[in-house]
Amino acid sequence: MEVGIVGLPNVGKSTIFNALTAAGALAANYPFATIEPNVGVVDVPDPRLKVIHGFIKTDKVIPAALRVVDIAGIVKGASTGEGLGNKFLSHIREVDAILHVVRCFVNEDIMHVDGKVDPIGDIETIDTELALADMETVGSALDRAERTARSGDKESIARAEVLKKCKAPLEAGLPVRSLDLNADERKLVRSLGLITAKKVLYVANVDEADMHGTGPLVQVVRDRAAKEGGTVVPVCGKLESELAELGGDDQKEMLQSMGLEEPALATLAREAYKLLGYHSYFTAGEIEIRAWDIPVGWTAPQAAGRIHGDLEKSFIKAEVYTVEDLVKHKTEKAIKEAGRLRLEGKEYIMKDGDIVHFQAGL
Ligand code: GDP
């Protein structure tokens, strides 16, 4: 699961990225996370882990994680090579979803690239650049498809149809995600890495004085997101970076004094996870309790493959119970005795909150 942070310069992207990654996961759990400086790993907080830990003793509790890529360099003209141009575009094509940071804080000392704080104007500037980039991709793919379609190649004909379908909204300044596409069409769009086809979560970077995002600047972002069926999470970048530096009890105290239950970044990570259509199952034992993120709809063998490829190939069955079973019966043994431990096979579709032991013929 990977999300990319986009936004105009000086809206608080780096501040939020740094706070996210400072507060984030232990690098030791994710050996590849620290290779690139603009990639961070963020925990997805899940209160159920604590519940499970109340019944199963271990020293290691590992939440699900989200990879976050800081994609700098989008300015007006980025799609035609200004700013970092194509470099950022190739990064952004690979992510699963986009966190669009919008400046909703007013501070005379911090310059705004367009001279004024204007969330909708900012969103439109970014959207235009992304749509232009997609138009280029769609344009050249369409040329290619039409050329091969002339020989009567059915696949190319179908491909050209889908590309034409994508071209229309882009020309009207609308994102490809506004189209109603079927599964095959979506697959093609994904293979092209169209940026405006990706889901977007708006991150409204708010003033310290408007921590809950009740002010008018956030409201316009909410109205905008509602039109696209999207979500807005208000985050005060400045405050979050202070919170991330504190950690532990000091952080709790500061949160309490502000009347907050958790850092806004925790909410952000969870919302991003939801946006991507993921849910979690758990493995729990003496060695570790761990949440594993999988797309909704995955089968038990696919879920096993999330742990290790070999587990998917040699999958035999899964022993499954739920967090509720554990709360009610307290031990796995008691769950079994109560007849609540299910044996599931290859066709089983995983449910959110399943606690699983996979059996494989390794
Ligand atoms: P980027 O160019 O989008 O990465 O923006 P930065 O993260 O570098 O932030 C630009 C400036 O805005 C920095 O001086 C930050 O300290 C400041 N800034 C970021 N978030 C906030 C915020 O929530 N409130 C205020 N007042 N300033 C912020």
Topology:
Layout: E1 2-6, H1 13-22, E2 39-44, H2 47-53, E3 61-62, E4 64-70, H3 86-94, E5 97-104, H4 119-149, H5 154-171, H6 183-192, E6 199-206, H7 216-227, E7 231-235, H8 237-246, H9 248-257, H10 264-275, E8 278-284, E9 289-295, H11 300-307, H12 309-313, E10 315-322, H13 323-329, H14 332-337, E11 342-344, E12 354-360
Parallel strand pairs: 1-4, 1-5, 3-9, 5-6, 6-7
Antiparallel strand pairs: 2-4, 8-9, 10-11, 10-12
Bound molecules: guanosine-5'-diphosphate (GDP).
What structural keywords apply?
Rossmann fold, 3-stranded mixed β-sheet, binds guanosine-5'-diphosphate
Evaluate the radius of gyration: 23 Å
Largest sheet: 6 strands, mixed
The chain-level mean pLDDT equals: 87
- Distinct ligands, ions and cofactors found in the model: guanosine-5'-diphosphate
What is the multimeric organization of the chains shown? single chain
Order of helices and strands: EHEHEEHEHHHEHEHHHEEHHEHHEE
Q: Which bin fits the share of residues in helices? A: 40-55%
**CATH-assigned homologous superfamily of the domain at 2-46 and 64-118 and 194-275:** P-loop containing nucleotide triphosphate hydrolases
Q: Give the strand tally.
A: 12
CATH topology of the domain at 2-46 and 64-118 and 194-275: Rossmann fold
| Beta-strand content | 15-25%
Function: ATPase that binds to both the 70S ribosome and the 50S ribosomal subunit in a nucleotide-independent manner.
GO molecular function: ATP binding; ATP hydrolysis activity; GTP binding; metal ion binding; ribosomal large subunit binding
Domain OBG-type G: 1-255
Binding site for ATP: 10-15
